[in-house]
Amino acid sequence: MAALSARARALISRSALHGNLSALSARSGTPLILPVKAGAYGHGLEVTARLAAEHPGVWGFAVAVPREAQALAALELGRPILLLTPPTPDEVPVLADLGVRLPVASLAEAEALPPHARAHLKVDTGMNRLGARPEEAVSIGRRLHERGVLEGVYTHFATSDEPDLGFAHEQFRRFQGVLDRLPPVLAHASNGGGILSLGELPGMALARPGLASYGFAPAHLRGVAPLRPVMTLQARVTHVHTARAGETVSYGGLWTAPRDTRLATVGLGYADGYPRNATGKAQVLVQEERRAVVGRICMDQFMVDVTGLEVQTGDWIEVWGRQVTVSEVAAWGETVEYEVLTGLGERVERIGVA
Ligand SMILES: *Cc1c(COP(=O)(O)O)cnc(C)c1O
C-alpha cells in the first residue's frame, strides 16, 4: 500500500529547544522540570520529550493528567515525571508504581500514599487553584517527611508574566514561610514568566518553564533571555487556481477578488487549530514572502493569494515559525500563544529536526 502523507507537519527544532532550555536554566540558576502537558504544548509529547531528555539541564518533566504521565513513563527516558493535578484515589498506586511524582495537598492524601511513592507538596500561595494553604502545608509536609516520601515542595505564580510583580513577590514570601519550617527538599516555584521576570530565587532547586521553553516570552520580557520558537508549522498546497476579478472566495463570500487572483488552497484549517478568528487578518509565508490568507478559514483548508509566485500542488508553505510567529497568529485569532499551540490537532505530523 502506498504511504499516505500528512497535509501538515510541525518541525520541532532540537537546537532551538536546547538553546531555550540552556538560557532558562542559566537565568533561573537551576535545572528544569520541563512541562510537556497537552502534548508538549502542541509540539508532540514523544518527539519533544525525547529531544529534551538529551539536554543536561532537564531534571525531569511535568504533565497535567495521569494518562500523560503514563504515556511519558512508557518512553522510559530515565527522568522523573511530576504530575501537576490531583489523581483519583484508585490512580495513586498505579502512578506510584510507574515512579510518577505525585502532588499532595492534604493530610488524607499524605496518609494514603503507598510507602514507595514520591510526593511533591503543593502549596497554594495565591493562585487559588490547587494546593494546601500555607498554614496547613507545614504539617502535611512534616507528615510526608516522616513517612519518607517527601521529595519536593512547590507553588505556582498567578501573575509572574505581568509587568506588576507585587503579587508574585508576595506569593514567594508566603512560600518561603512554609519552606523555612520544613526539612530541606527540592523546592520549585517559577514558571517561564517567573524565571524571566524574577531570575534566580533564593532556595529554589528547580523551575518549571513551559511556554518560554518553546520559545515565547510576554511582550515586556522579550530580550531578557535569547529564546527562539521551537516549532515551524508547514502545510501543503492541494490545489492552485485563478479566481476572476469580482468573484468571492470561501464561505460567506467575505472576500472579493479585486483583480484576477492566483489562489493556492492549503490543507490546514480550524479543525487542526488554525484559528478561524484569524480570517481577514492572517498571513503565511510562501517562498519567503508574506502572503494574505483570503476568505473564511475553513475546517480543513484555507486559501492564499499567491499571484505572481510559481506555486504548485504539493508545495509546502509555512504557516508559522520564525518569520510569521505564533504570537502574530494568536493576536489575529484574538487569543494567546498557549491556546494556538495546544490547539494544534492530531492530523498534524510532528517531526524532530536538528
Ligand atoms: C503549566 C504550568 C507551568 C508552566 O507554565 P508556563 O506559563 O507555560 O511557563 C508551570 N507550573 C505549573 C503548575 C503549571 O500548571
TrEMBL record:
<dbReference type="InterPro" id="IPR009006">
    <property type="entry name" value="Ala_racemase/Decarboxylase_C"/>
</dbReference>
<comment type="function">
    <text>Catalyzes the interconversion of L-alanine and D-alanine. May also act on other amino acids.</text>
</comment>
<comment type="similarity">
    <text>Belongs to the alanine racemase family.</text>
</comment>
<dbReference type="GO" id="GO:0005829">
    <property type="term" value="C:cytosol"/>
</dbReference>
<dbReference type="GO" id="GO:0030170">
    <property type="term" value="F:pyridoxal phosphate binding"/>
</dbReference>
<protein>
    <recommendedName>
        <fullName>Alanine racemase</fullName>
        <ecNumber>5.1.1.1</ecNumber>
    </recommendedName>
</protein>
<keyword id="KW-0663">Pyridoxal phosphate</keyword>
<feature type="domain" description="Alanine racemase C-terminal">
    <location>
        <begin position="230"/>
        <end position="353"/>
    </location>
</feature>
<dbReference type="GO" id="GO:0030632">
    <property type="term" value="P:D-alanine biosynthetic process"/>
</dbReference>
<feature type="binding site">
    <location>
        <position position="299"/>
    </location>
    <ligand>
        <name>substrate</name>
    </ligand>
</feature>
<dbReference type="InterPro" id="IPR029066">
    <property type="entry name" value="PLP-binding_barrel"/>
</dbReference>
<feature type="active site" description="Proton acceptor; specific for L-alanine">
    <location>
        <position position="251"/>
    </location>
</feature>
<dbReference type="InterPro" id="IPR001608">
    <property type="entry name" value="Ala_racemase_N"/>
</dbReference>
<feature type="active site" description="Proton acceptor; specific for D-alanine">
    <location>
        <position position="37"/>
    </location>
</feature>
<feature type="binding site">
    <location>
        <position position="129"/>
    </location>
    <ligand>
        <name>substrate</name>
    </ligand>
</feature>
<comment type="pathway">
    <text>Amino-acid biosynthesis; D-alanine biosynthesis; D-alanine from L-alanine: step 1/1.</text>
</comment>
<feature type="modified residue" description="N6-(pyridoxal phosphate)lysine">
    <location>
        <position position="37"/>
    </location>
</feature>
<dbReference type="InterPro" id="IPR000821">
    <property type="entry name" value="Ala_racemase"/>
</dbReference>
<dbReference type="Pfam" id="PF01168">
    <property type="entry name" value="Ala_racemase_N"/>
</dbReference>
<keyword id="KW-0413">Isomerase</keyword>
<dbReference type="GO" id="GO:0008784">
    <property type="term" value="F:alanine racemase activity"/>
</dbReference>
<dbReference type="InterPro" id="IPR011079">
    <property type="entry name" value="Ala_racemase_C"/>
</dbReference>
<dbReference type="Pfam" id="PF00842">
    <property type="entry name" value="Ala_racemase_C"/>
</dbReference>
